[in-house]
Write a structure and sequence with these properties.
By secondary structure, this protein is of the alpha+beta class. The chain has one domain (about 5-90, about 105-115): Alpha-Beta Plaits (2-Layer Sandwich), CATH 3.30.70. The chain contains 3 helices and 4 strands. Strands 2-3-1-4 form a 4-stranded antiparallel β-sheet. The structure holds protoporphyrin IX containing FE. Protoporphyrin IX containing FE binds near residues 6, 28 and 76.
């Protein structure tokens, strides 16, 4: 069965880049123990786009869906499903506990199936 790649494409205004990277730096780290999880990378744009890519790879679509329905919400501090009001809870509660402003102004998910892959020769 081919692995699936799920990429969350985050539109991040230039002045919010540092905030986003700081939030990922204090991320929950629970995805590492999710069933069927294979790989995660946060990709910072250098050329050709201003969007950050949150790259995740999974053993199957079902494993990804199970994570989205389960520990993904805890890992995002609140229901990521609420559009832009989604995650970004990196322990930066504002005065009086109000939720921190999301760093991303937009997000969309790209889905791929791994057709071919290669690793460095041992
Ligand atoms: C509303 C859409 C979303 C936004 C704005 C967003 C933003 C964020 C932010 C800021 C973090 C850092 C931790 C935190 O502050 O909570 C995070 C964690 C993460 N996000 Fe998202 N996210 C969204 C949806 C998704 C989706 C659909 C995926 C899957 C492709 C994804 C994959 C991840 C992963 C793997 C982590 C690390 C979780 C962990 O450490 O356990 N996110 N996200």
């Amino acid at each position: 069965m081919a692995s699936v790649v799920k990429i969350n494409v985050l539109t991040v205004p230039a002045e919010q880049r540092e905030v986003l990277e700081k939030r990922f730096a204090s991320r929950a780290g629970s995805v590492e123990s999710a069933d069927g999880f294979e790989w995660f990378e946060l990709l910072r744009p250098l050329e050709g786009t201003d969007d950050y890519l949150v790259y995740t790879r999974w053993r199957s679509e079902a494993d990804f869906e199970a994570w989205m329905a389960g520990s993904m919400r805890g890992a995002h501090g609140q229901a990521a499903g609420s559009g832009q009001g989604g995650p970004g809870q990196g322990g930066e509660g504002g005065e009086g506990g109000e939720k921190p402003k999301p760093a991303a102004t937009g997000s969309t998910v790209w889905s791929f199936e791994v057709v071919q892959s290669a690793a460095p020769k041992a």
